[in-house]
Amino acid sequence: MQDAITAAITSSDLQGQYLNSESLAQLEQYFQTGELRLKTAAVISDHAPDIVKDAVAHSLAGANAAKPGTAMHTTRQYAACVRDLDFYLRYATYAMVAGDTSILDERVLNGLKETYHSLGVSITSTVGAIQSMKFVTTELLGEEAGCELGCYLDYICDSLT
Ligand code: CYC
């Protein structure tokens, strides 16, 4: 796992160069948004179960949730879904604080698409549920903070599709 600072330094070091203006601009942005990202992480830590519950209510309680024959028709599958959404929220929060997506690649996304395919878990429904969680967090946190987290939730969705 790396963060915005180690990513910039590693990249410069590999080229044997001082930090260039592009790296410095990225780091400036990282430091400028630092307080916002930490406050956002604190609110998410306090509200995580509610965020997941609301996201499930928005996306799954309707069409898919209770129908036999869909991926969500047993209590076990429903629990797996809630658990997966909680994973996504927690790891997206880590990535937001780090300002870097590598923790998502290493701990969450590695082999996930294949696992979902082999278990018959719908990628479309999963992406829909993650987008609902983005909506719920933006409602709770406000546009600016929701956006800080939202790009990492989008990163998960993009990797799954
Ligand atoms: C299953 N989700 C799984 C499995 C894994 C993950 C590995 C298979 C093993 C198991 O059931 O535990 C995901 N595990 C993870 C992730 C990590 C990890 C991300 C990294 C921290 O360790 N089904 C839907 C919903 C969606 C869903 C839309 C919720 C978003 O229809 C999730 N995931 C879902 C379901 C299963 C599952 C239903 C169980 C499938 C089955 O066993 O039939």
From TrEMBL:
Organism listed in the record: Acaryochloris thomasi RCC1774
InterPro entries (UniProt xref): Globin-like_sf (IPR009050), Phycobilisome_asu/bsu (IPR012128), Phycobilisome_asu/bsu_sf (IPR038719)
Chief localization: membrane
GO biological process: photosynthesis
PANTHER family registered for this protein in UniProt: ALLOPHYCOCYANIN BETA CHAIN, PHYCOBILISOME 32.1 KDA LINKER POLYPEPTIDE, PHYCOCYANIN-ASSOCIATED, ROD 2-RELATED
UniProt key word DNA-binding: no
Membrane topology summary: Peripheral membrane protein
Annotated positions binding (2R,3E)-phycocyanobilin: 76, 81
Record's subcellular location: Cellular thylakoid membrane
Pfam families xref list: Phycobilisome
Family that this chain belongs to: Belongs to the phycobiliprotein family.
Signal sequence residues: none
Keyword line: Antenna complex, Bile pigment, Chromophore, Electron transport, Membrane, Photosynthesis, Phycobilisome, Thylakoid, Transport
GO-annotated cellular components: phycobilisome; plasma membrane-derived thylakoid membrane
The name this protein goes by in its record: Allophycocyanin beta chain
